[in-house]
Design goal:
Residues 1-20 form the signal peptide. By secondary structure, the protein is mainly beta. It has one helix and seven strands. The radius of gyration is 14 Å and the shape is globular.
Length: 105
């Protein structure tokens, strides 16, 4: 197995997109997805490993940390994560495949 240097990524909360709505599908985007405050579409994949940090207002900052055991590398339109308002957390948790039994710190 080849040794790899750890991936280091710096981000600021203000730079993350903020989810605004959940959509079950539409003619333009037929699969369930979220839109952010800028109108961009976000499809969340259950295979991504994430760190979800609860903020004082109940929102969560969700950071992508790995995909399939490999370090997550944002490509193209992908971003480092997003901010999820508390009201959308049930849909986001379901989309990411979270069961509620994940570790918390």
């Amino acid at each position: 197995m080849e040794a790899r240097a750890p991936l280091r990524v710096a981000s600021t909360l203000a730079a993350l997109p903020v989810l605004a709505a959940y959509r079950t599908g539409s003619p333009a985007c037929p699969w369930p997805h979220f839109t952010d405050t800028a109108g961009r579409v976000h499809t969340l994949l259950p295979g991504l490993d994430v760190a979800a940090l609860t903020l004082p207002d109940g929102a969560r900052a969700v950071l992508y940390v790995a995909q399939g055991g490999e370090a997550y590398t944002p490509q193209g339109q992908d971003r480092q994560g997003f901010v999820c308002p508390a009201r959308l957390w049930p849909q986001v948790a379901r989309a990411l495949g979270l069961t509620g039994e994940e570790e918390t710190a």
